Amino acid sequence: MKRKEEMEAAVYSNLNIRVDKKEALAFYYQLRAYIREEDARSFGVLMDLNSSMLKDEVLMGSVLSIMKGKHAGALAQFVHTLEQ
Fold first, then answer.
1. Which of 21, 23, 57, 58 could form a Cys-Cys staple with 6, CB 3.0–4.6 A?
2. How many CA atoms lie within 13 A of 71 on its CB side?
Protein backbone atom coordinates (compact mmCIF):
# COMPACT_ATOMS: atom_id res chain seq x y z
CA MET A 1 0.00 0.00 0.00
CA LYS A 2 1.71 3.16 -1.18
CA ARG A 3 0.32 5.42 1.56
CA LYS A 4 2.01 3.51 4.35
CA GLU A 5 5.28 3.12 2.42
CA GLU A 6 5.54 6.88 2.10
CA MET A 7 4.94 7.34 5.83
CA GLU A 8 7.56 4.70 6.58
CA ALA A 9 10.11 6.48 4.37
CA ALA A 10 9.38 9.82 6.03
CA VAL A 11 10.01 8.42 9.51
CA TYR A 12 13.31 7.00 8.36
CA SER A 13 14.44 10.12 6.50
CA ASN A 14 13.52 12.46 9.37
CA LEU A 15 14.40 10.37 12.42
CA ASN A 16 16.69 7.65 11.04
CA ILE A 17 14.44 5.00 12.56
CA ARG A 18 13.20 2.02 10.59
CA VAL A 19 9.58 1.17 11.25
CA ASP A 20 7.18 -1.14 9.55
CA LYS A 21 4.17 0.09 7.65
CA LYS A 22 1.68 -0.24 10.49
CA GLU A 23 4.02 1.46 12.97
CA ALA A 24 4.58 4.40 10.62
CA LEU A 25 0.88 5.05 10.17
CA ALA A 26 0.17 4.65 13.89
CA PHE A 27 3.06 7.02 14.70
CA TYR A 28 1.64 9.62 12.33
CA TYR A 29 -1.76 9.47 14.01
CA GLN A 30 -0.22 9.66 17.49
CA LEU A 31 1.76 12.76 16.61
CA ARG A 32 -1.16 14.37 14.82
CA ALA A 33 -3.42 13.72 17.82
CA TYR A 34 -0.83 15.26 20.13
CA ILE A 35 -0.63 18.37 17.94
CA ARG A 36 -4.44 18.57 17.81
CA GLU A 37 -4.62 18.55 21.61
CA GLU A 38 -1.61 20.71 22.44
CA ASP A 39 -1.14 23.13 19.54
CA ALA A 40 -4.37 24.24 17.89
CA ARG A 41 -2.63 26.73 15.59
CA SER A 42 -0.25 24.15 14.16
CA PHE A 43 -3.08 21.65 13.85
CA GLY A 44 -4.97 24.20 11.76
CA VAL A 45 -1.97 24.49 9.46
CA LEU A 46 -1.84 20.70 9.14
CA MET A 47 -5.51 20.55 8.24
CA ASP A 48 -4.95 23.21 5.57
CA LEU A 49 -2.19 21.01 4.11
CA ASN A 50 -4.24 17.84 4.33
CA SER A 51 -5.32 17.37 0.76
CA SER A 52 -5.42 14.43 -1.55
CA MET A 53 -2.90 16.24 -3.73
CA LEU A 54 -0.09 15.92 -1.18
CA LYS A 55 1.95 12.80 -0.74
CA ASP A 56 1.71 11.24 2.68
CA GLU A 57 5.47 11.59 3.03
CA VAL A 58 4.97 15.37 2.95
CA LEU A 59 2.23 15.18 5.59
CA MET A 60 4.43 13.06 7.86
CA GLY A 61 7.33 15.43 7.27
CA SER A 62 5.12 18.36 8.26
CA VAL A 63 4.00 16.63 11.46
CA LEU A 64 7.59 15.79 12.34
CA SER A 65 8.72 19.34 11.58
CA ILE A 66 6.12 20.77 13.95
CA MET A 67 7.07 18.28 16.63
CA LYS A 68 10.80 18.96 16.23
CA GLY A 69 10.33 22.71 16.28
CA LYS A 70 7.69 23.17 18.96
CA HIS A 71 7.38 19.95 20.93
CA ALA A 72 10.84 18.37 20.93
CA GLY A 73 10.46 16.87 24.41
CA ALA A 74 7.21 15.17 23.54
CA LEU A 75 8.67 13.94 20.25
CA ALA A 76 11.58 12.40 22.16
CA GLN A 77 9.11 10.51 24.34
CA PHE A 78 7.14 9.29 21.32
CA VAL A 79 10.37 8.19 19.62
CA HIS A 80 11.53 6.38 22.75
CA THR A 81 8.25 4.46 22.85
CA LEU A 82 8.49 3.72 19.13
CA GLU A 83 11.98 2.31 19.48
CA GLN A 84 10.98 -0.19 22.18
1. 57
2. 23
